[in-house]
Design a protein that fits this description.
Length: 486
């Protein structure tokens, strides 16, 4: 009887009518970190990637008029389209990261990763919209109408966040440390430090046109510290996926769920065709299938499946053979979609990109062509290794495409554009910053605007729910602070 009474008395808190046991207000920080890293990867393989890859002519929208991707590629991106992307940042990812930061006392390894990720996440938000909530963001019900901060003031705060994160992941003591609950690096704190330093180089390079002296000084100083920086593809900031329902790569999932919505774009495919780029064999299926030839689609093309399709680099390895139709095209049926494992990683920053950043830094700010060449070649080879290109073919490509004095910056950015196939935002960021690669606007006969977007509209929900602070942009020509190229 005493034991039974003890049992009942211990339930007092559980039976408190003011506490809903099905909606806890606290959670273990290891579980919240899992949510944060997974949502980061999904965001980078979903809307964020589709907008930038369609604008930057890596993907082409097909499947007929009024279809989402077909409209986006002709720049018909409306405020109502952007609600989910904005929520992916401000409703999903950032509250998780803020929770970890605020609830990891004594465990700096957790708060350090969260701060690095928070800095990375805000850098993407700024790069998409420009002025956004920052100092008054993430206050929950205490402030449901945060003001917009000047985007130029947010970047220095991002760098400070990343620096705090680096110091904390390097802490010698931490009550608990992440492991498999952290789905990007599996708790490898050195890789987080390498990523954070490499990320800072990416962000400092954004100032290359706006304030080159600042970009040079900051990059020079950071490089002089020795980092550490990414040193191989094993340091790629990417997340692997598994071949299980709802756990596959989101690019693959979109291909399965939205049949014929995306194909490789003609601009990217032709750029690689000109140089017989060996990465085509994993980037795209050939068309006609089995021919060794590759064909991309573009805005204004008639609805068709007579193009190359996304292949193993973005979708994962093949588990079974693909059977084309009589014309050599691939029908997007269940047999085709189930042929892929869906395990390809979502790549968010790679060792290849790091090398192209270093190549551009040297080219712009001292050392010139000769000093930039080793980084340029290392970037190409890192990309090709990730695309399963044999060493001999890598060497042959590099020998046939040396960095030339005529226009080396264009070459570096063009190769970076090819290497960043599947990396959200970066090709668009580079184009806005440098003008390369030299994509052409969609034909005026079908384009929704007479310009290539420089930022996106604020989401409709934000302008409706926070009208005193968020006024809609007049158009998508409004520039992010670092975008000063004529």
């Amino acid at each position: 009887m005493a034991a039974l009474m003890l049992s009942f008395s211990s339930c007092d808190d559980f039976l408190d009518v003011n506490v809903d046991p099905n909606n806890p207000v606290t959670a273990p920080i290891d579980q919240v970190l899992t949510s944060a890293t997974v949502s980061t990867a999904f965001r980078n393989g979903s809307d964020l990637h589709r907008y930038s890859s369609l604008i930057m002519q890596q993907f082409s929208g097909q499947a007929g008029p009024t279809i989402q991707t077909r409209e986006y590629q002709r720049y018909l991106i409306q405020p109502s389209d952007l609600n989910n992307l904005y929520d992916a940042f401000y409703v999903t990812a950032l509250p998780d990261l803020e929770y970890i930061i605020n609830n990891s006392a004594g465990s700096p390894h957790y708060s350090g990763i969260a701060k690095i990720l928070k800095g990375y996440t805000f850098s993407q938000i700024v790069d998409v919209w420009g002025d956004v909530p920052f100092t008054e963001a993430l206050q929950g019900t205490l402030n449901t109408a945060p003001k917009l901060d000047d985007d130029a003031t947010i970047y220095p705060a991002i760098i400070s966040l990343i620096n705090e994160g680096i110091a904390e992941v390097k802490a010698t003591e931490s009550n608990i440390s992440p492991g498999d609950d952290e789905t990007i690096y599996g708790g490898d704190l050195l890789k987080w430090e390498k990523f954070a330093n490499s990320l800072k180089l990416r962000l400092f390079l954004r100032y290359s046109e706006k304030d080159p002296a600042f970009a040079k000084a900051q990059m020079d100083a950071l490089i002089a510290t020795g980092g550490p920086f990414m040193s191989s593809n094993a340091d790629n900031f990417e997340m692997e996926f598994v071949d299980a329902q709802a756990s596959q790569n989101p690019i693959h999932q979109f291909e399965v769920e939205r049949v014929n919505y995306t194909f490789p774009h003609k601009f990217l495919v032709d750029l690689m065709n000109i140089k017989a780029d060996p990465r085509r064999a994993t980037y795209f299926t050939d068309f006609p299938y089995g021919s060794g030839q590759y064909k991309g689609a573009e805005a204004g093309d008639p609805e068709s499946i007579n193009y190359s399709r996304l292949h193993t680099y973005l979708r994962g390895n093949l588990k079974s053979a693909i059977t084309p139709n009589a014309a050599g095209a691939i029908i997007a049926n269940s047999a085709y979609n189930n042929a892929y494992s869906g395990t390809a990683p979502i790549r968010m920053m790679t060792f290849a990109e790091y090398n192209f950043i270093r190549a551009e830094h040297v080219l712009r700010f001292g050392g010139g062509l000769a000093a930039a060449t080793p980084f340029y070649e290392a970037g190409i080879k890192a990309s090709m290794t990730a695309a399963d290109v044999a060493t001999a073919a890598q060497n042959a490509y590099v020998a046939a495409n040396p960095l030339m004095a005529a226009d080396p910056l264009q070459q570096i950015i063009q190769e970076k554009y090819i290497a960043n196939y599947g990396v959200a935002l970066e090709p668009w960021n580079d184009w806005r910053r440098t003008g390369f690669p030299a994509i052409m606007p969609v034909s005026s006969a079908i384009a929704a605007t007479d310009y290539i977007p420089r930022s996106l509209y604020y989401p409709e929900n934000e302008t409706l729910n926070n009208p005193s602070n968020v006024m809609q942009k007049p158009d998508m020509k409004v520039r992010v602070f670092w975008d000063t190229r004529p």
